[in-house]
Specification:
The protein has two helices and eight strands; from the N terminus they run E-H-E-E-E-E-H-E-E-E. With about 140 residues, it is an alpha/beta fold. The model has no long low-confidence stretch (mean pLDDT about 90).
Length: about 140
């Protein structure tokens, strides 16, 4: 049931103070920890909980929770790898001060790009990689 907009009062915005963490579904914890360590993350806790979660922290303050309940990595990512478009988060964009240096470091570690470099306007740019489970990570350099 929808309510006509003319009869509704605007709702007050919920107070948000920042990003708490990013939850990423993975299959193999050690393999994923190795990948995210290339991006500067360190495992600080876990796995704990009914659906085991490992916590990774980054010096920038970004926290990633690796949720250990994904199917095998060869299973298609339904948000990115099938023709039908499903609602959901397609990728995470992490700020990166130097895309060229990041690209070189990833390539030296044997990680190939899945996209980019792509320009977003005159100065901003990004590159895309897939983690071992097919989750898309953008490294984004602001203009």
């Amino acid at each position: 049931m929808s309510i006509p907009l003319a009869t509704t009062k605007p709702a007050a915005a919920v107070a948000i103070t920042g990003l708490g963490h990013i939850g990423i579904r993975v299959h193999d914890l050690e393999r994923s920890v190795r990948f995210y360590s290339l991006l500067g993350f360190t495992k600080t806790a876990g796995p704990v909980g009914p659906e085991p979660v490992a916590i990774l922290d980054h010096p920038s303050g970004v926290e990633v929770n690796l949720i250990l309940n994904a199917p095998e990595a060869k299973t298609p990512n339904v948000l990115m790898d099938v023709p039908e478009k499903h609602p959901g988060i397609t990728h995470v964009a992490l700020l990166c001060p130097d895309i060229a240096a990041a690209k070189a470091q990833l390539e030296a570690a044997g990680i190939s790009l899945s996209g980019g470099p792509i320009r977003f306007g005159p100065k901003a740019q990004g590159i895309f990689v897939r983690d071992p489970d097919g989750n898309v990570i953008e490294l984004h350099q602001r203009g």
